[in-house]
Amino acid sequence: MSRYLLKRILMMVLTLWIIVTLTFSLMHMIPGDPFASESDQLPEQILLNLRAKYNLDEPLPMQYLLYLKSLVMLDLGPSIKSETRGVNDMIKDGFGASALIGLQAIAVALFFGLLFGTIAALNRNTWIDYTAMVMAVLGIAVPSFIMAPLLINYLAIKWPLFPVATLTSWKHSVLPSLALAFGPLAIITRYMRTSMIDVMNQNYIRTAEAKGIPTFLIVIKHGIRNAILPIVTFMGPLIAGLLTGTFVVEKIFAVPGIGKYFVDGIFNRDYPVILGTTVFYSAILVLIIFLIDLAYMFIDPRIKLSSRGR
Amino acid sequence: MAVDQSVNELFRPRAQKADGQIAQMRPSLTHFQQVTRKLVRNKLAMVGLTLIVLLIAMAIIGPHLVPYSYSDQSLLNANQKISSEHWFGTDELGRDMFSRTWYGARISLIIGISAALIDLVIGVTVGGIAGYMAGRGKKGDRIDTIIMRLIEVLYGLPYLLVVIMLMVVMEPGIVTIIIALSATGWVGMARLVRGQILQLKNQEFIMAAQVLGAKFPRILLRHLIPNTIGVIIVNLTFTIPSAIFAESFLSFLGLGVQAPIASWGTMTNDALGVILTGDWWRLFFPALMISLTMFAFNVFGDGLQDALDPRIRE
Amino acid sequence: MADHLLQVENLRVHFKTYGGEVQAVRGVTFHVDRGETLAVVGESGCGKSVTAQAIMGLIPNPPGRIVDGQIRFDGKVITGMNKKELLSVRGAEIGMVFQDPMTALNPTMKVGAQIVEGFVRTHQVSKEEARKKAMEMLRLVGIPDPEKRVDQYPHEFSGGMRQRVVIAIALANNPKLVIADEPTTALDVTIQAQILDLLRELQEKQQLSIVMITHDLGVVAEIAHRAVVMYAGIVVETGKVEDIFANPKHPYTWGLMRSLPRIDGVEKERLVPIEGTPPDLFHPPKGCPFAPRCQFAMEICEQQMPDASTFTAGHQAACWLHDPRAPKLEELVAAGRQT
């Protein structure tokens, strides 16, 4: 068990290192440097000073090592457009907003996805099932950057239920969370339906029926737990998708989250910010996937044995 | 006839029948027939297929149906409503939305299909090699392990984040988008193919073929490919929409195709402001097209998957 | 009549499928007495498992439905029961043992909890008592070390052990009847014998009635008192096991006997499979369903379904050969050879 954990943690560090190296080399493949566009307007001396400040005068390998060193010290680097505030400050500012929206979206997607999927599976080939499936397909078909303007149009402008733009109260977080939740909700609904249908056809469900357990309890005690198992393995990519979804949702709703800084960084070509936030996002993702794997081991009793056996 | 005869007379040995009449089974269908039959009966999948065909047709002829090109500007005609002149209205530069929408369909389809095909080629090759090598002595196992490690790491990277990084670095354009999308997109296909091949390799009919002395290319051609092709096609019908989605996502972030080229993503992005002004058609058509395309490919893929799944019977 | 624990009368079950309606069970009648083991024998697809599901009230509807007939159990009519009433019979009064122990247990639930799940519902017991009951059941079905086993998961058990757990589940509520649907088919031969011994021992200890569904005449000889031979959804022969083995009356039973390997046989008989395949139950024949495969078939066999003829007490077979008007067997064989 502990050997498995150690192996997993090493894999995590390796993945992160690859991401850092990859993004670092990508960012430095760009011809010129971040100040190239401003070199006409700024005096020579200031440019030199700026380059020195961001270690751009060092040779590339040295820059790489310096960057790794600062990462180990948990410093994600500076921003070029904003001299006083580095990536760490941006993350400190934006993390709360992003996390609130993201976690709410996951919670909504998981709860309703599992619920709708189960209901659809139990009413297979009835209008309930078809309705749920059409909704699910629509949820997959309509990207969050289209869902967001639709929500704003109907639930904020035509029918002003929720405020939008910025994040000054919890009510402001409702629409961004919903816009973000639709896709994953649809995907979870579909997987849960398939998985639940599969589980309900298993022999152990027949055993439970033969014991005289009412259908409702069979679904709760035997169905859902077994049906969730395959869903858990999809959670990693799903959360990765949700995370990239925050970029556009935060931009459209003008939520001051990390995603907005990231997108602004892209628009401004502020490479240190892109680099820093990417590294941060990757770290969060790798950590979440690790946690999901751990959770899986607790949900499925068969996994523990096989990892011990290895 | 039997009715006229007394029952007694029936107590005599039955006339022998031809052998063929002993087994009276209902006519069996070939696998392919069963799959197409199930697919055709799936109404939603057929709706999807129809939409895909229409979409491809309109992508080809759509821009030619109106006298405006996707990039013709006419500031006098900016933000025109839907009319007999401009079937889908015009945008803020007076460009015809009908022409732009179907031009955008071209871009989306070209990107989606090319990315999916590149994924297919790389994925099947790499996955096939890994699957073939696995279990072939120490050296074979090592090659498989190396490929799998690579795949594992790449699979761990968040797909869109990598694509965004690549697009930040590369010159924006159709070709670079395709490159960025397939840079890590093939990993899913490779995993799938390797898994399928490993699973099949252990099955008795493959072993039987090996025992009978069939060479690998023959096994590949006669057994492995026919048995994996279904899963591969299903995967393909899902990679196309996800590539189309990724393109519009990138274009939406300003990392996709550049003006004046129209893409559904850039059109959506351009139209964001109109929520306040009420020029709804500017957002409606590109948004509808993205959603319809995603819908069509997804329901068709689902139908295909169900049709190929022998466990699902009607 | 009233004394029978289980009485199945003229049971008909149809399944709607994509290709039409399958008449899986077409008028089956038999009974089981208290403390008796009845074997239901036949090839796969003959309707024996569907009959078992019908007794449990577990016919999936749709696509299946009981079209006609009645099942009475212990004075109650099962076929007319609503869902709630069925729940009080299932598990509590009739237990069921399934074919494949590898898939019959929930992989994510502890074995002990699975055994007493039904028991806990009908008896208000504490957790302690439930656990004790689970261990008692494990001991009853011969699983060593129940204190440890009760908290383990199914994947930690071997196939034979799992089948013992499945039997423990079936017996946990002290049912009067256990339906065992091919309980040994998925097991190794040595394990098969152990499971059969266990069932026989439990039957004597608990005064159980057992319906043993099997395609294996060896199992029938081993464990059953009486047997029902089914073919294409109908009963072709029924009687005491001794009578059926010593003096089978239906050509299908003869065929089954010949396809049975004999270890003790003095003369080295070849195993003879029955030629041909069972009829299509989408369009069942109007005559005897076995006629197309029967080497003694007469013209009447294809026209009309024979009634059952009675031989000794309870030994019946439905075959035209036993009609007084029928020619002698030798003539039929001779006729068959001529052409």
UniProtKB/TrEMBL annotation, chain A:
InterPro entries: BPD_transp_1_N (IPR045621), MetI-like (IPR000515), MetI-like_sf (IPR035906). Its main location: membrane. The chain crosses the membrane at residues 9-30, 99-122, 134-154, 174-192, 227-249, 279-299. Residues 95-296 form the ABC transmembrane type-1 domain. It is a multi-pass membrane protein. The keyword Transmembrane applies. Keywords: Cell membrane, Membrane, Transmembrane, Transmembrane helix, Transport. The keyword Transmembrane helix applies. PROSITE patterns: ABC_TM1. It holds the Pfam family BPD_transp_1_N. It is found in: Cell membrane. Belongs to the binding-protein-dependent transport system permease family. This is ABC transporter permease. It comes from Brevibacillus porteri. The lineage of its organism: Bacteria, Bacillati, Bacillota, Bacilli, Bacillales.
From TrEMBL, chain B:
Its main location: membrane. Keywords: Cell membrane, Membrane, Transmembrane, Transmembrane helix, Transport. The chain crosses the membrane at residues 44-66, 107-134, 146-168, 174-193, 224-246, 280-301. It is a multi-pass membrane protein. Pfam families: BPD_transp_1, OppC_N. The keyword Ion transport does not apply. Residues 105-301 form the ABC transmembrane type-1 domain. It is found in: Cell membrane. It comes from the Bacteria. Belongs to the binding-protein-dependent transport system permease family. This is Diguanylate cyclase. It comes from Brevibacillus porteri.
UniProtKB/TrEMBL annotation, chain C:
Gene3D superfamilies: P-loop containing nucleotide triphosphate hydrolases. It is found in: Cell membrane. Keywords: ATP-binding, Cell membrane, Membrane, Nucleotide-binding, Transport. The keyword Cell membrane applies. It comes from the Bacteria. The keyword Hydrolase does not apply. Residues 6-257 form the ABC transporter domain. Pfam families: ABC_tran, oligo_HPY. GO terms for molecular function: ATP binding. Belongs to the ABC transporter superfamily. This is Peptide ABC transporter ATP-binding protein. It comes from Brevibacillus porteri.
